[in-house]
Amino acid sequence: MKPTNAIQSKINQAIKQLESRFLEREELIRLLFLGMMGGENVLLVGPPGTAKSQLARSTAQLFGSENWFDYLLTRFTTPDELFGPVSLQELKQDRYIRQTDGYLPGSQFAFLDEIFKANSAILNALLSILNERMFFNGREKQPVPLLFLIAASNELPEENEQLAALYDRFLIRYEVTYLKNIASYELMFQMPDEPLSPVLSISDVEYIQQAARHVHLPESIIYFLFQLKQALEEKEFLISDRRWSKIGRLWKTSAALNGRDTVSIWDTVFTPHMLWDVPEDLTVAQEVFEPIFQAALKREVEKELPLRAFEQIAEKWQDKVEELQSFQFKREMGEKLGKESAQRGMSQIDNARSEIEEAGRHLRDLLVAWQQNEKDLAGHIYRQNFLLMNIERYTVKYTGLRIQGERILQSLQKIYRTLFDRDIPGASYDYTL
Questions:
Q1: Which has the closest alpha carbon to 267: 203, 216, 227?
Q2: How many Cα atoms sit within 13 Å of 186 on the Cβ side?
Q3: Residues 6+ apart with CB under 8 A from 122
Q4: Please, is 362 exposed, middle or buried when counting C-beta atoms within 10 Å of its C-beta (0-12, 13-18, 19+)?
Q5: Are strands 134-137 and 140-143 parallel, antiparallel or unpaired?
Q6: What long-range pairs does 329-336 form, CB within 8 A, spacing at least 24?
Q7: Helix (H), strand (E) at residue 136
Q8: How far is CA 400 from CA 66, 296, 298, 367, in A?
Q9: d(C-alpha 249, C-alpha 246), whole Å
Q10: Pick from 133, 120, 27: nearest CA to 75
Q11: Could you give the CA distance from residue 245 to residue 131 in angstroms, rounded to a whole number?
Q12: Residue 169 neighbours by CB under 8 Å, 6+ apart
């Protein structure tokens, strides 16, 4: 099994474990794994009692790692509590060094509750840890092994320049609400409580991050990002260049997770959760994102079934049907035609025959192959991005394209019958499937 396939299998096992314990959190769970594999921080916003901290701890347990730091911040929290106490031995030598083992700068996984209650003594250190994974320990720059940090808050920060900078360090933002469905309340009392089985490793994360560095971001996806940027700015969304850069890198992570070396539109599906500043803006972000995404998805799908070229051939010869029929009628009636006119007419007839036959057979073959794909369309789409949810919403795009292709093939057949009084050889197709 390829390393990427093995990692996908592990993530699916991890998702299954979390979904059995955290109801109505399917999308959030997938976002957590995407953020984790991309080394991006996640912010959970929501009222107390929505299992934010429990979900964060459970996610870390899936790695079987004890290198976990968990803390509830208040405005009275001191730097010692987060970053470790000052070493007395070092202080005797006039060196101000913290003992970071067991604290945030020495952890691989972390959960910080009420993150925005951090005071100014803590904020600056947090900024470099969250963004550069670097802790300034005295005069030394200490690399932080932090792979993934989840923060939570019951409320968003007020207008404050320092807190705004902290907020910008969280690429993925998600509003966590109370359960809504009665079925969830029925299941809530039957959920398993045995420990989670570790299924992932640090090496899995390192492998995906290394692979993501070599993923190509094609011009079409850069154009998609710029379209999205412009549309959001029209709605007065101001998103920093740093965040756009991080969004592009997370798309690369998604491509690497799916075993591709190039980003496709399928890697962008979770982007709305990286765009809002307040939860109320998520709906607007989704409304802006969806038509741009759908247009790009249509172009992506049409690469697999490029119908426009066949449509142009059908339109070209449809415009010439009367002219060619007239020529054929004159020939059959024995009407005298000039040499040049006869040669031109015969050349057009030959061109029509060869071009329509070639297009019809090629399109027929593509449609037959497409029908085979449709037998496992959900699987085909799943292979584009295994983290996708509600796959059925995408299948309509594929079915609609096949129907459009069948109409074009029928048009080609009709033109050919009109001109040559028979079907296109080798282009028979069962339209009833």
A1: 216
A2: 3
A3: 73, 77, 79, 82
A4: middle
A5: antiparallel
A6: none
A7: strand 134-137
A8: 51, 16, 10, 12
A9: 5
A10: 120
A11: 13
A12: 41, 126, 127, 130, 131
Give the largest Cα separation in the chain, rounded. Answer: 115
Please answer whether residues 397 and 298 qualify as being in contact, where contact means their C-beta atoms are separated by less than 8 angstroms: yes
Nearest to 55 by CA among 92, 127, 109: 109
pLDDT tens for 128-173 read: 999 899 999 888 899 999 988 999 998 887 766 667 888 888 999 9
Residue with tokens 């756009």: 244
Q: CB atoms < 10 A from the CB of 45, how many?
A: 22
Transcribe 374-413 into DSSP letters.
HHTHHHHHHHH-TT---THHHHHHHHHHHHHHHHHHHHHH
Q: What predicted TM-score, i.e. pTM, was given to this entire model?
A: 0.85
In degrees rounded to 5, what are phi and psi of residue 119?
Answer: -90, 175
Nearest 5°: CA angle at 137, between 134 and 142? 40
229 band by pLDDT with thresholds 50, 70 and 90: very high
Strands of the sheet containing 172-175, edge to edge, are 68-72, 109-113, 148-153, 42-45, 172-175
Q: At what angle do helices 392-420 and 321-332 cross, to 10 degrees?
A: 20
Spatial separation of the C-alpha atoms in residues 386 and 389, rounded to whole Å: 9
Q: What's at 44, amino acid-wise? A: L
pLDDT (mean) for 97-104: 91
DSSP 8-class letter at 216:
B
Tally of CB atoms within 10 A around 220: 16
